[in-house]
Design brief:
It is a single chain. This protein has seven helices and four strands, in the order ααααβαβαββα. By secondary structure, the protein is of the alpha+beta class. The chain has one domain: P-loop containing nucleotide triphosphate hydrolases (Rossmann fold, 3-Layer(aba) Sandwich).
Length: about 150
C-alpha cells in the first residue's frame, strides 16, 4: 500500500532528493485510517487486499495529490455492497468538500444516488442532460438507448 499510495504525490513525502520514509508512512497510515482501508499494515501488498480495499487505495493515491477534479470510472465495479457504501460515503464527502467529481458508471442507482447532474450518451453523442430532480432510471434508459425524443435538461 505504501509505495502504491504515494507514487502520484512524491512531493508531499519527499525531502530534497529522497523519499522521507517516516513522512511517507505517516501519510499512508493517516490515509488508511480516513478511508478505512483494512490491512495489517501499510506495507501490505495492494494486490493481496479485497477488491473494495484495492479501490480505496487507488482513490487514496489520487486524493493525496489534492485534486480539484476527480474522474471516477466505475469506482465500485466488482466490489461487495459494504465496500460500495464506504466508497459512496467517500465520494459524497469529497463533493461536500468542494472537489468536482466526474462519475462514469453503468449502475443506475449509483448515478441517481451520487449525481447532481447526469449526462447521458447515445452512440457517442450527448442525448440528455438531467438534473438530480428530473433524473429517473426511465429517462436515463430512454436517452441511452435512443428511444423516444432526445431529452433536454
Amino acid at each position: 500500500i505504501l509505495e502504491n499510495s504515494t507514487l502520484a504525490s512524491l512531493k508531499t513525502t519527499s525531502g530534497k532528493f529522497l523519499t522521507n520514509r517516516v513522512r511517507e508512512l505517516a501519510t499512508v497510515e493517516k490515509l488508511m485510517q480516513s478511508l478505512r482501508i483494512k490491512a495489517s499494515s501499510a506495507s501490505t501488498i495492494t494486490a493481496n487486499l479485497s477488491g473494495g480495499n484495492q479501490q480505496k487505495v487507488v482513490l487514496g493515491k489520487w486524493l493525496l495529490t489534492k485534486p480539484k477534479i476527480l474522474l471516477l470510472d466505475e469506482p465500485t465495479r466488482g466490489i461487495d455492497i459494504g465496500a460500495k457504501q464506504e466508497i459512496y460515503s467517500q465520494i459524497d464527502k469529497l463533493a461536500k468538500e468542494g472537489i468536482a467529481i466526474l462519475l462514469v458508471s453503468s449502475e443506475l442507482p449509483e448515478l441517481l444516488g451520487l449525481s447532481d447532474r447526469i449526462l447521458v450518451l447515445h452512440e457517442g453523442r450527448l442525448s440528455a442532460c438531467l438534473s438530480k430532480l428530473e433524473a429517473s432510471a426511465e429517462k436515463i434508459m430512454i436517452a441511452a438507448t435512443g428511444y423516444g425524443n432526445t431529452l433536454q435538461g
